[in-house]
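User: Teach me something about this protein's shape.
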Amino acid sequence: MTKDSKISRRWFLRGMGGVTLGLPLLDASQATGSNPAPLRFALFVVGANGVAMADPSREGEVEMFWPTATGALTTDSLRAEDTQHSRTLGLLADYAPRLLLVRGVNQPYGSAGCDHQSGDNMCLTSAKIFGSGNSSLAMGESIDNRIARERNPNAREPVTLRAGWRPNDATGYDNPGFISYVGERQPRAAEPSPLRAYQRMVGMGDTGSTDEAILAKQRTSVNDLLRSQITELMASPALSSDDRQRLQQHFDTISDMEVAITEAELEQELLDQMAAVDNDLLSMNNHPTMIRLHMALLAFAVASGYSLTGTLKVGDRIDSNEWVVDGTKLPQFHMISHRNMSDATGGAVIPDAFELHRKVDRIHAADFIYLCDRLAAIETPTGPLIDQGYTVWTNQMSTGWHRHDNQPFAIVGSAGGALRVGQYFDAGGVTLNLMLNTLLTAAGVTGADGGPVTDFGESSLPGGLISEILA
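Assistant: First, the predicted structure itself:
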């Protein structure tokens, strides 16, 4: 970059070996007095196996997920849900003013032979299902793809990540599952490696070079590699004080992520005597670390301007991670969700399985909070980044007994005021496409007529919006 480079809303620093550092969207228009529009990013974290909510088909399993009553949410009321009623969503108390909880949203179709696969197919598409069993596919694109192709820079593909233990080429019962779809029967494979995803974002991956000097440069911190350009950029008189603050936070985020990735590699070397974490990404021992790193990458993708949308699948088609709770390794989470030592029926009953399911839900809630915390910590000229978009925590189905009604939605962030936050709303059994229409509209996507999106998902489903959750 030269000293007379014109300031634009999107900057890139480029260095040796194809290293590219995407900078955040800067407040270049501030000097003219205009107010930047909110980014309206949209991030989706999708779990597996359902959550510990009340299930009419399971006797004695009382509600442990949703708050006790719909209506306004406050920090105090949600904290009481946690401490007095042990409700999982009470853990989100600190985000009550930014929180929108929506129940009563039903996936449009039942199982096509495998409830998990069917739930993955529908949860972000509201599309019909092609085929059956473990190899079925969605018959339409997913919400992240629609947002990316209409709003991402150069229609860049959405960030698509997963934290699981099935290999990419696994098939049948062991396939990793897909939630992101390019289009009809076109699943997008998710990246299991935080390191490779990060390198791709900053332009360090897939250069094809074997030059040792270049490879050495690529192993250097991106901040160090581009230090001279960063120094020049920070000194530019064209930058406002807000720009400089945001850039510094951006560079600090890069440094934090590189440290986290390095620590994961060192931990993996110590645990499994492997040279790099990528050699054992699918280890259950690394699963908690991988989830947090992927969460950090979602925040980084938005903060850097790399993508306005992304998905993280926690678990595979089924989530079989063995969590450690209170110092004890639990049975596989999928078995817990079935309440017996089996991936189907007939195994030995797991004592207190519903309570164990609730404890796993709380782990996932804490991971979601970690993502929200990262977004909330990033300041922009118009306030914390978290308020400029929204972040969704949902699941491939509602309960561990393979139900496709009442898909849970916990949403943090108002998308610049587009969503009515600070409330818990019961949509009354609407079909999923209405929820996805509403989320697309909040993300700044428009219909063919320039108005709200009302026709996403399977075209034969009645269209419309959940107007009550739009501001």
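Now, about its shape. Residues 37-192+281-469 form a domain with the Alkaline Phosphatase, subunit A fold (CATH 3.40.720). The CA atoms of residues 420 and 468 lie 8 Å apart. If you'd like, I can walk through any region in more detail.
User: That's plenty for now, thanks!
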